[in-house]
Amino acid sequence: xxxxxxxxxxxxxxxxxxxxxxxxxxxxxxxxxxxxxxxxxxxxxxxxxxxxxxxxxxxxxxxxxxxxxxxxxxxxxxxxxxxxxxxxxxxxxxxxxxxxxxxxxxxxxxxxxxxxxxxxxxxxxxxxxxxxxxxxxxxxxxxxxxxxxxxxxxxxxxxxxxxxxxxxxxxxxxxxxxxxxxxxxxxxxxxxxxxxxxxxxxxxxxxxxxxxxxxxxxxxxxxxxxxxxxxxxxxxxxxxxxxxxxxxxxxxxxxxxxxxxxxxxxxxxxxxxxxxxxxxxxxxxxxxxxxxxxxxxxxxxxxxxxxxxxxxxxxxxxxxxxxxxxxxxxxxxxxxxxxxxxxxxxxxxxxxxxxxxxxxxxxxxxxxxxxxxxxxxxxxxxxxxxxxxxxxxxxxxxxxxxxxxxxxxxxxxxxxxxxxxxxxxxxxxxxxxxxxxxxxx
Length: 441
Fold this sequence. Notes:
- This protein is 51% helix and 10% strand.
- The chain is α+β, with helices and mostly antiparallel strands.
- It has a single domain (8-438), classed as CATH 1.10.630.10.
- The longest helix has 32 residues, at 223-254.
- The chain is globular, with a radius of gyration of 22 Å.
């Protein structure tokens, strides 16, 4: 028998399976979910996503599910709306738009190569444990300038994120707080915010003039608002891209033939010194398709929400004030009505579909789209062109853990220099390969 909480147990047990099962089976444009007394709908028809995301804030806006994130990121552009949101977003977008982000290609490549040189000597490693700090360093380079954060500060930020991520995810749909967990969560949150604030304040003081934080300072934000905005960008930029990047290692290791083809593509987008040329990256279709397919199967934001601010109609459904709308890229990206063989990784499939929404759509889409795509594509090209990857597990598919983002399971990987880059003396013969492996060794 249905009651206001009849779906809650299934959701809490396995939210990914819940979204996918309910979404794939539904014949409605929006599927009513019973997760509490207030109405909640899962958006099933992908053509509704853009109208929902483009709706006027007076009709559909960020609601209580998003506002729970204020526990950590305060009144940042992730949680606010209206003119102030637009003002901050414009400043962030101006610094992180695709054209501007491409100016970081050389720095991102150099960072990756230094890390690969270390991993080559180290042996096997966990993909996510490597990818998350890499993504953090990239976003901090954009935020503060190159080299502002050292290893100690980076480690502090990562520990702070780990301290609160599971607690925050647990609380997103918990309607009745758990008394046993309440004080532990408050302690963890307080400790994590204090750790992050110390690092952020230190980095702000040392930021370079061309950095994003300097652009935000020009808006005249209060110290607290600036700190919240920077924390949001660090958390969103490092955690989402870092989780997606772990799957790059996995799929390159599991398809050597595809990796070989990407390596051949990489040879056509570098200059004489072996450096990737930003102007040629948009035409590197295979590595771009690989990147898009990673984000289709493993969208870091596996759900996001909006709320009806007043009674309104979407898709033929009248939504009363307070109704929440859940959009799940995990479901939309795996629904066989929109994708042939949706569980199969296919770097050459078309992603031109309204059901492809890893970053959202419209004016409220993720402001870091350009930078995230650039980071992942550069990672794909740098790895495939220089290394052969092997993963220790023989599983055909791995399931991520739903937290604030999708956390990959342990993926143990080993790098080896590509055989076709070696000469008889077992040294790398290609100048570009030598540069990639030896630049910082």
